[in-house]
Design a protein that fits this description.
The protein is an alpha/beta fold. It has ten helices and 16 strands. Pfam families: Diphthamide_syn.
């Protein structure tokens, strides 16, 4: 795949042109900075060919104020940007002031090898499977699904029929005024929800995490499924492991073309989180570390946390800092846990 395809240049230009944006912030994570100059050059060439397009200024944000997965509205506001084009991995958290367009990128994957590995593993299990994936592999999921369906048809004579459910990518465009609505594929908070039919009876449960969403039939829960993750052993995968820790999970590594079942590292992270939760119960002063000022509803979440902490008879500090590290947090030795 070339740069035009990986970074979805045509779709990005259409987004900028259709909304008449003139000041566009391009947010790159550290690992993609090597391509930013090429992307800017190609975008300028494409935009320049549109005769009716007025002058467009492109600004590269090379060092996000907070985590790179969230839209850096703080940095974009310093250049009076009209919108943000976000590249790479994202949690698709709703923005509060600026529209955002997400370009996930397209990582290479051997579709046949992936489908064969998943099919072979599924043939020895009776549970239904839920397929989750890193957003950089979203472009290959339709082809993997086709090969799995084809493989399942060849095993039609088997006693058990393997059922695969695939998560879907939420809308790669976020408009601030609509961020609280649950229509048009816009992100919701991570958790469970119910979708009701016309009679008001819960027909299915809806789940979302890390830019993915899916629905489970009525009467079924996440623990009934075996989770198959396609992608790297990164923060997105760790989030899935921690959130759905009651499920059996396996991971297909697209770089090494193998299916791994050893999640000892993620289990250690989960045990440490349980330890820190217990430690927080004994704390006298609790710090709330604010990791972003751009996600819609962050103030409400902070107020809810403060109410819970003060209701438990503890003092609370609110800490706002970009790129937190041990040296910065050491300036507040009186704070026991920081959440």
């Amino acid at each position: 795949m070339d740069l035009m395809e990986i970074y979805e240049i045509d779709r990005t230009v259409d987004f900028i042109h259709s909304r008449n944006f003139t000041r566009v912030a391009l947010q790159f994570p550290d690992e993609l900075l090597k391509d930013c100059t090429k992307v800017v050059r190609v975008l300028r060439e494409k935009i320049g060919r549109l005769k009716e397009q007025i002058g467009v200024s492109l600004f590269v944000m090379a060092d996000s104020t907070y985590g790179s997965c969230c839209v850096d509205e703080v940095g974009a506001s310093r250049i009076n940007a009209d919108c943000v084009i976000h590249y790479g991995h994202t949690c698709l958290s709703p923005t509060s002031t600026l529209p955002a367009f997400f370009v996930f990128g397209k990582a290479m994957i051997d579709v046949s090898s992936c489908a064969a590995s998943l099919s072979n593993y599924a043939s020895n299990n009776s549970k239904p499977f839920l397929v989750l994936f890193g957003l950089e592999y979203a472009h290959a999921i339709p082809y993997i699904r086709e090969e799995l369906v084809a493989a399942a048809s060849t095993l039609s004579g088997s006693k058990t029929k393997t059922v695969f459910h695939f998560a879907e990518v939420m809308c790669p465009l976020i408009n601030p005024p609509d961020c609280h609505k649950e229509s048009g594929g816009l992100p919701r908070s991570v958790g469970d929800g119910e979708v009701s039919d016309e009679l008001g009876v819960a027909a299915c449960s809806r789940h979302t995490i890390g830019g993915l969403s899916w629905e489970l039939p009525s009467g079924q829960k996440m623990e009934d499924y075996l989770l198959l993750w396609i992608g790297s052993d990164n923060s997105a995968f760790a989030n899935v492991v921690l959130t759905f820790n009651g499920c059996e999970i396996v991971r297909y590594d697209a770089n090494g073309n193998f299916l791994g079942t050893d999640l000892s590292q993620q289990r250690r992270i989960l045990k440490r989180r349980y330890y820190l939760v217990e430690k927080a119960k004994d704390a006298n002063i609790v710090g709330i570390l604010v990791g972003t000022l751009g996600v819609a509803g962050y103030l409400n979440m902070i107020h809810q946390m403060k109410d819970l902490i003060t209701g438990a008879g503890k003092k609370v500090y609110t800490l706002v800092m970009g790129r937190p590290n041990p040296a910065k947090l050491a300036n507040f030795p009186e704070v026991n846990p920081i959440i």
